[in-house]
Design brief:
7-stranded mixed beta sheet; Thioredoxin peroxidase; alpha+beta; globular; about 210 residues; 11 strands
Length: about 210
């Protein structure tokens, strides 16, 4: 699948749980366009072991994302009813009670497919029947979408590999720094350290459009 970097994020309209306790039927990412950046992360399944550590980790630093003008959104292939049930389960019992950012339901797996994180694919057998090969869940994908709805960063981990929330914040800071100062961020750049001026014919113009 071709990378989504520099391209509009796929259109999403799906049920979701918001505020930790409310189901909405037509949640979209487009509602944030022009208002906020979005960190969209996929996780394999509800009621698992590694996944709640990630969901709680995002919640623990939610204020840091919000103060940067970023909306965090989670997504898995479970239904909105599964999300809601998991949100009612206490953290000490493996639940995600206390998570308040939206969690989208991708029960049809089309969102995961469109973002290129579905761990498997549909194939046709000798009788042209569709069969699924692989694990029908989402890899641990993360996408940073800017205020114009353009994907600016993504990372996709295999199922056993938990992600770094600090790295997601670092990439948000890098994008904000570039947008404010027009400077590019070198390897291991962190907020407050020196960045670099883009040089060369056409470079600044190119970066401003990408």
């Amino acid at each position: 699948m071709r990378s989504l970097i520099g391209r509009p994020a796929p259109v999403v309209s799906t049920p979701a749980v918001i505020n930790g306790n409310e189901i909405v039927s037509d949640f979209t990412l487009e509602q944030y366009k022009g208002r906020a950046m979005v960190v969209l992360f996929f996780y394999p399944m509800d009621f698992t072991f590694v996944c709640p550590t990630e969901l709680h980790a995002f919640q623990d630093k939610l204020d840091q994302f919000e103060e940067r003008g970023v909306q965090v959104v989670g997504c898995s292939v479970d239904s909105e009813y599964s999300h809601l049930a998991w949100l009612q389960q206490p953290k000490k019992k493996g639940g995600i009670e206390g998570v308040t950012y939206p969690i989208m339901a991708d029960f049809t797996k089309t969102i995961s497919e469109n973002f290129g994180v579905l761990a498997g694919s549909y194939l046709a057998d000798e009788d042209d029947n569709l069969i699924y090969e692989g694990k029908p869940v989402a890899y641990r994908g993360l996408f940073l979408i800017d205020r114009e709805g353009i994907v600016r960063h993504c990372v996709i981990n295999d199922l056993p590999l938990g992600r770094s929330i600090d790295e997601a914040l670092r990439m948000v800071d890098a994008l904000l720094h570039f947008e404010e100062y027009g400077e590019v961020c070198p390897a291991n750049w962190a907020k407050g350290t020196e960045a670099m001026k883009a040089t060369g014919e056409g470079v600044s113009e190119y970066l401003s459009k990408h």
